[in-house]
TrEMBL record:
Assigned EC number: 6.3.3.2
Pfam families, per the entry: 5-FTHF_cyc-lig
SUPFAM superfamilies attached to this UniProt entry: NagB/RpiA/CoA transferase-like
Top EC class for this record: ligase
Protein name: 5-formyltetrahydrofolate cyclo-ligase
Domain of life, source organism: Bacteria
Catalytic activity, reaction form: (6S)-5-formyl-5,6,7,8-tetrahydrofolate + ATP = (6R)-5,10-methenyltetrahydrofolate + ADP + phosphate
Protein family (similarity comment): Belongs to the 5-formyltetrahydrofolate cyclo-ligase family.
Gene3D superfamilies assigned to the protein according to its UniProt record, in alphabetical order: NagB/RpiA/CoA transferase-like
Gene Ontology molecular-function annotations: 5-formyltetrahydrofolate cyclo-ligase activity
Keyword presence, Iron: no
InterPro entries in the record: FTHF_cligase, FTHF_cligase-like_sf, NagB/RpiA_transferase-like
Keywords associated with the record: ATP-binding, Ligase, Magnesium, Metal-binding, Nucleotide-binding
Length: 199
């Protein structure tokens, strides 16, 4: 685990610090890191065997998932992406067949159309979920953007949870953990897959 802001940092401070760090990374460096992360992920047997891949649609300087989505769809793999219901403070995943189906939703992030049918929990069995975040620790805990949408979804999610993280997004210190926070099972990095289970 690489960078850290100390064990006494709260989530707001961590969020602010890691947003600044991410924004400062040159575009070319981000692209190189993301290509290595994608290679680690594609070589991971659990990801390779998944019948369905749930993934966020990358926005701004997030670790790129659009290339992953395009590759999977081209290969005939099943892909679903999130749609946020801000009023209900909830998030569903809907299967897609092209990135062209998506339209700007909350905060301008691309998501399925309002009439897209959400997948049910039983339909998610055998899937993996690629989870976004700003920083992750060795136990799989994360600091996200503060909305809580992923933690609420992951609390009932039946598959494997995989974070995508550049080295600059890894903390050597444990992160603050809330009662409703759900850790990821694995972290895909430039150098390989980190197993967070049992740590």
């Amino acid at each position: 685990m690489a960078s850290s802001y100390g064990t006494d940092a709260d989530k707001s401070s961590l969020r602010s610090n890691y947003l600044s760090v991410r924004k400062a990374i040159p575009t070319r460096s981000r692209a190189s890191s993301d290509a290595s992360i994608r290679s680690s992920l594609r070589a991971f047997p659990i990801f390779d065997a998944a019948e369905l891949v749930l993934t966020y649609v990358s926005f701004g300087p997030e670790v790129d998932t659009r290339s992953i989505i395009a590759e999977l769809l081209e290969e005939g793999r099943r892909v679903a992406v999130p749609r946020v219901n801000k009023a209900a403070h909830a998030m569903d995943f809907c299967e897609i067949f092209s990135l062209d189906e998506l339209e700007p939703g909350v905060m301008g992030i691309l998501e399925p159309a309002p009439n897209a049918e959400p997948l049910t929990t039983p339909e998610l069995v055998g899937s993996v979920c690629l989870v976004p975040g700003l920083v992750f620790d060795g136990s799989g805990h994360r600091v996200g953007y503060g909305g809580g949408y992923y933690d609420r979804f992951l609390a009932f999610y039946p598959g494997d949870k995989i974070a995508l993280a550049r080295t600059t997004m890894l903390s050597s210190n444990p992160l603050p953990v809330g009662v409703h926070d759900v850790p990821v099972d694995f972290i895909a990095t430039e150098s390989g897959i980190w197993n967070c289970r049992g740590r």
